[in-house]
Amino acid sequence: MSTESSGVIEDAGPAGRTESAVSFDDVAVRTEQGLPECVSPALYNADLAPTKRAGRRWSAYNIFTLWANDVHSLGNYAFAIGLFALGLGGWQILLALGLGGLFLFLLLNLSGFMGEKTGVPFPVMSRISFGIRGAQIPALIRGAVAIAWFGIQTFLASVVLRILIVALIPSAQNLDANSFLGLSTLGWISFVSLWVIQLVIVSYGMEMIRRYEAFAGPVILITMIALAVWMLSQADWTIAWTTPDSLTGGEMWAKIVGGASLWVAIYGTFVLNFCDFTRNAKSKGSIVRGNFFGIPLNMLLFGGIVITLAGAQFRIDGRVIESPADIVQAVPNTFLLVLACLALLILTVAVNMMANFVAPIYALSNLFPKTLNFQRAALVSAVIGLVILPWNLYNSPAVINYFLGGLGALLGPLFGIVMADYWLVRRSRVNVPELFTEDPDGAYHYRGGVNPRAVIALIPTAAFALVLAFVPAFEVVSEYSWFIGAAVGAIVYLLVADRKGPFADVSGEAIAVASTH
Question: Membrane-spanning residues where (predicted)?
């Protein structure tokens, strides 16, 4: 039976439950776009829809190459070399990275399995715990952090491109002497060139990103190993395993554990939205194998390269470098300098797309699913990343520490809430089709589309995380703020969560799309 009133159609199910409540406009949009009858156009499009199991292409190798690129990012090298400067020796750095790698391996498997089972990206996954409307909160927080870092990482890559251009065309140095909105002419040429390259790659969708990551992974590993061997040869095949200011005793162990915790915090953003990629994974086994070789083992290789680069440079002149870019700049052979710069550019683009471009694309598509598909959301994200003039953000400690640092501090509690709801409350039982319905009786409608229990859990734990991040009195535990925030978020949510259920486990295959969209 159906009734019509004020432009709304309602269909009653056999038990009297309202199966759908949609406007004539929604019906028209659904018909025009060929959407399944049970979904709302305000919640569903081809990019947000679950992926079909048949035809998923992300293998263990593809998962591995994500980490082969991301682990060897310039930012990570700067962090790990910083441990050397802070007084940790070779084996202590390896231990810190190894501990961090084991923690990440476990966390990423938990997050990755969610994507493999449901086939949906992070903004849709957030609807499970926060509601079909409340999911905008975690999605936009994650997207805002990512879009700022997309611009910043593009700027950092453009610095490498400037070095490359001057090495090939020395007269281009003349274009680096002026300034417009904080960048020289050469700086603008470099930044916009990389901005366009990334936009073109992403415009072809997740399948092109998969192919690019698969190409970039071996290039980065070979380049960084070659750079380490070259530095070792420059230091007469010996390195300094420690500095004169090396730590010992309890202070050393505290720094090792703190370094491992900070290493996990660096990946706090990626742990949250790893399902954006694993929704295309062939199996749980692919995720486990890819994570194992890409995280613990790859991080030990990364640690060996860090120790070699930093220790060799310290052996040569007693100087602690800040980044591999410092070494690349000193390469005396122009041909080798060009190859090294190209490899660093390939690396930075790979890291930027996986860590900072995909997340805001899905967040914006989730916000405006009727108008923004993957390509349009990519363009909007890229434009925002340009107009914020990210080099000025990077050069402002206040912006980095308080704005981006503040948003980053919220990711721990968000992770705790989402994971506790999925694994502990629901025991991974999800009704995937109902993630895309505005039916007031839907499993994830809650109150007006928002789960007040998740919001109640988030507000105090977010405030607590911000206090840990910014109040000097808590500086002693600041290294562990992500873990503390995640744990407190999970505990508070478990205290207020509705455990009654019933929690139905329904596949999304009926409304799924091909994973190569």
Answer: 77-108, 143-169, 181-202, 214-232, 252-274, 295-316, 336-364, 376-394, 400-425, 454-474, 480-497
Q: What is the pTM of this model?
A: 0.86
* Cβ neighbours, 10 Å, residue 325: 19
Query: How far apart (Å, rounded) are the C-alpha atoms in residues 59 and 278?
Result: 9
* Contact by Cβ (8 Å): 208, 202: yes
Q: Do 514 and 437 form a contact (C-beta atoms < 8 A)?
A: no
Please, which residues have CB within 8 angstroms of residue 456's CB and are 6 or more apart in sequence? 496
Q: Residue 372 has which token pair?
A: 């923004």
CA distance 210 to 238: 39
Spatial separation of the C-alpha atoms in residues 96 and 396, rounded to whole Å: 29
* Three-state SS letters, 178-225: CCECCECHHHHHHHHHHHHHHHHHHHCCHHHHHHHHHHHHHHHHHHHH
* Helix/strand/coil percentages in the chain, nearest 5: 70, 5, 25
Residue pair 343/219 in contact (Cβ under 8 Å)? The answer is yes
Q: Is the four-CA dihedral 218, 219, 220, 225 of positive or negative sign?
A: positive
pLDDT confidence band for 34 (50 / 70 / 90): low
Cβ neighbours of residue 230 closer than 8 Å, sequence gap 6 or more: 331, 336
Short-list 299, 276, 289, 328, CA closest to 97: 299
pLDDT tens for each residue of 359-371: 999 999 999 999 9
Q: Judge whether 392 and 191 are in contact, CB under 8 Å.
A: no
Report the pLDDT averaged over residues 134-144. Answer: 91
